[in-house]
Amino acid sequence: IQEQPGSRPFSWSLARKILSRWRWYACSALFAISGETESFGSNNLMGQWLKAIGGYSVEQIDFYPSGATAFAIVSTLICATWTDHTGVRWPVLVYMSIALIISSICILVWSSPTALKFFAYYLAGASYAGQATTFAWANQICADDDQERAIVLASMNMWNNVVNAWWSFVFYPATDAPRFRNGMIAMICVCVATLGITWVVYYLEREELRTRVKSAEETGTSTATAEPSEDEPNSSEVQKVV
């Protein structure tokens, strides 16, 4: 395979550089944790709930969960458009986490009306808005180093898959339907953890930017060179990578 112009082979010096920075650790942790907010949809909890409580036809059990998919599409479109326009990523993850906390509480309180549970499962579609934004954020953070960006993005997917390999078996077994009590509690914990790691990534990114600006000022370089790259990919492009 012909090596692309300007590309560099993987080396131990590159590995040491990446492992000595915060980016690989924080971004990997962010998606490994926040990716589990999609558990309601990926495990079809609403369909299992409808089947378990009875009174719905096969067609209804298949059709009604589509409302969550519709809300997921709308949420992803609006959030991706907004975050690409503003360049600010963290509010999307906050929105997603709060929406899933509300959904989990509504379902966890089993005496709540059926209509409220429908609302909760549909609101849970907000979880899909986070993936595109998370990867766009990682691209933005690593915009100054193509090799690090590639490794960080691959690592985010890898660690999320590592968690996915056992998460559903532990917290969303079919035997827990229709309440999924352990799953609802786990979802609340995941959302709180997502809020925490989102703050950590935001803080570390701001600190790195301040350090770069300060260094540029001390060396007499224009602060514009310390700003993040303007060529960061938008969320729609990032979703294709995912």
Overview of this protein structure:
71% of the residues lie in helices and 0% in strands. It has 242 residues and is mainly α. Helix 2 (23-34) runs parallel beside helix 10 and helix 7 packs antiparallel against helix 11. The protein is elongated, with a radius of gyration of 20 Å.
Secondary-structure topology with pairs:
Layout: H1 12-19, H2 23-34, H3 39-42, H4 45-53, H5 58-63, H6 66-86, H7 90-108, H8 114-123, H9 129-141, H10 146-171, H11 181-218, H12 235-241
Helix pairs in contact: 2-9, 2-10, 2-11, 6-9, 7-8, 7-9, 7-11, 9-10, 9-12
Short structural summary:
By secondary structure, this protein is mainly alpha-helical. It contains twelve helices and no strands. It has helices at 12-19, 23-34, 39-42, 45-53, 58-63, 66-86, 90-108, 114-123, 129-141, 146-171, 181-218, 235-241.
